[in-house]
């Protein structure tokens, strides 16, 4: 099966900075693909490479199996929606949406029909005669999306399309985008630095950092099985405890940490190897005394935050903050400064052995340069 997009060893440097560093990945036809990562990690540059707005220094970009590396933007079956949606201020909503079709010399009848259908899709039919300044931010963004969809691209690239909107509106448009995707079944490539949006929307998530891919997996897997410390920290809340492997053999590894020793089955490690224990706050057990779990520690509650629906506790265990999340309001037995016990089951702990792909890469480069 051919992929909607195939990025094959693509690099892009700006001066000496590798904005995108020898990256390879595929996007499947019709999928909702999310690109996340901190500011400056190379997300926008990746989209611009896909759109043909920047040329790679090396590597190839295939679309539906054909090499598009040197094909100009307007000949690619791709539309892009930007964070600053940049509508034409002097044109009406209708004319803004019609613009791409007029550029392609579509017949008048087709333009009328397609613009009408697309405005309906983004729920903006009533606003066809308004100017952008007469619209709210969310409405302007819907027009931006309509403008990209009207030309019926195979692939739509969205660069932080909800970035300028307030939280409630983000949630609403997020739901609408998801519906549009289900309805149209075209390929969505969605960039955000907001991992919550990626969790809500993405079928697969690609985590970028320093121009590298740290992990590309199904959304749930990126959350439950992060492949390194960077991803574990970047996606969701986490507990991470550094340790080193003390004995490894007989299929068992003992890891020494400031919280004590932990024993794990399987995996192959070297003695004294640096590793990190990781588990999610929802897997931390918390009780006023003797928490259950294979490992339990005494600590002091240093912070409690509640939304009513869920409550997050931070417990200081010998200087290490351990996070726990429970549904509902705070437990009256567990107040701030209370002495508590926190626990975790062995099978909820993931043993990570890599800080990040980027960092490991740098370590290798440093060694090579020495
Ligand atoms: N045209 C350019 N000229 C020089 N440097 C650039 C250019 N475009 C991007 N960069 C640099 O490349 C790196 C990656 O930028 P990019 O815009 O892809 O990041 P991003 O992941 O989209 O970040 P953000 O979340 O802030 O939008 C950054 O360090 C940026 O400063
Ligand atoms: Mg960007």
Which second-level CATH architecture of the largest domain applies?
Answer: 3-Layer(aba) Sandwich
The ordered H/E elements are EEEHEEEHHHEHEHEEHHEEEEEEEEEEH
Strand ordering within the main sheet: 6-7-8-3-9-10
Contiguous uncertain segments of 5+ residues? 362-370
Question: What is CATH's topology name of the largest domain?
Answer: Rossmann fold
N-C termini distance? 44 Å
Portion in beta strands? 35-45%
Instruction: Give the total of beta strands.
Output: 20
Name the average pLDDT: 90
Helix content: 25-40%
Write up this protein.
- The chain is α+β, with helices and mostly antiparallel strands and 370 residues long.
- The protein folds into 2 domains: 5-229, Rossmann fold, CATH 3.40.50; 236-364, Nucleic acid-binding proteins (OB fold (Dihydrolipoamide Acetyltransferase, E2P), Beta Barrel).
- The protein contains 9 helices and 20 strands.
- The chain has helices at residues 43-51, 93-103, 108-121, 137-149, 167-184, 195-201, 219-224, 229-234, 357-369; strands at 5-14, 17-27, 32-36, 58-63, 66-67, 78-81, 155-159, 187-192, 204-209, 212-218, 239-249, 252-257, 260-265, 274-279, 285-287, 295-306, 310-317, 320-327, 339-344, 350-352.
- The strands form 4 sheets. A 6-stranded mixed sheet has the order 6-7-8-3-9-10, sandwiched between helices.
- Strand 1 (5-14) and strand 2 form a beta hairpin.
- Helix 2 packs across helix 3.
- The radius of gyration is 25 Å and the shape is globular.
- The two termini are 44 Å apart.
- The structure holds adenosine-5'-triphosphate (ATP) and magnesium ion (MG).
- The site of adenosine-5'-triphosphate has 12 residues, from strand 2 and helix 1.
């Amino acid at each position: 099966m051919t992929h909607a997009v195939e990025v094959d060893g693509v690099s892009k440097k700006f001066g000496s900075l590798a904005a995108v560093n020898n990256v390879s990945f595929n996007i499947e036809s019709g999928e909702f693909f999310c690109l996340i990562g901190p500011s400056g990690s190379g997300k926008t540059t990746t989209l611009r490479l896909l759109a043909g707005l920047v040329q790679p220094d090396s590597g190839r970009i295939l679309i539906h199996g054909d090499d598009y590396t040197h094909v100009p933007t307007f000949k690619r079956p791709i539309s892009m929606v930007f964070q600053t949606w940049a509508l034409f201020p002097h044109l009406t909503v209708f004319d803004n949406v019609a613009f791409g079709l007029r550029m392609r010399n579509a017949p008048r009848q087709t333009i009328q029909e397609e613009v009408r259908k697309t405005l309906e899709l983004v729920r903006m039919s009533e606003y066809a005669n308004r100017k952008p300044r007469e619209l709210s931010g969310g409405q302007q963004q819907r027009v931006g999306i309509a403008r990209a969809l009207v030309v019926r691209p195979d692939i739509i690239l969205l660069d932080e399309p909800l970035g300028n909107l307030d939280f409630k509106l983000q949630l609403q448009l997020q739901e609408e985008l998801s519906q549009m995707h289900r309805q149209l079944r075209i390929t969505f490539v969605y960039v955000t630095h907001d991992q919550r949006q990626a969790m809500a929307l993405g079928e697969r998530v690609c985590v970028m950092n320093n121009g590298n891919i740290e992990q590309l997996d199904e959304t749930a897997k990126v959350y439950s099985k992060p492949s390194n410390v960077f991803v574990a920290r970047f996606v969701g809340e986490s507990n991470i405890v550094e340790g080193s492997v003390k004995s490894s053999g007989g299929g068992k590894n003992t890891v020494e940490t400031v919280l004590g020793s932990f024993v794990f089955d399987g995996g192959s490690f070297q003695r004294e190897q640096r590793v990190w224990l990781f588990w999610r706050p929802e897997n931390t057990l918390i009780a006023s005394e003797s928490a259950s779990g294979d490992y339990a520690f005494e600590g002091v509650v240093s912070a409690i935050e509640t939304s009513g629906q869920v409550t997050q506790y931070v417990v200081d265990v010998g200087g290490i903050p351990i996070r726990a999340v429970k549904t509902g309001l705070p437990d009256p037995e567990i107040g701030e400064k209370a002495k508590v016990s926190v626990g975790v089951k062995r099978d909820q702990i993931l043993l990570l052995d890599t800080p990040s792909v980027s960092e490991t890469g740098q370590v290798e480069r440093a060694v090579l340069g020495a």
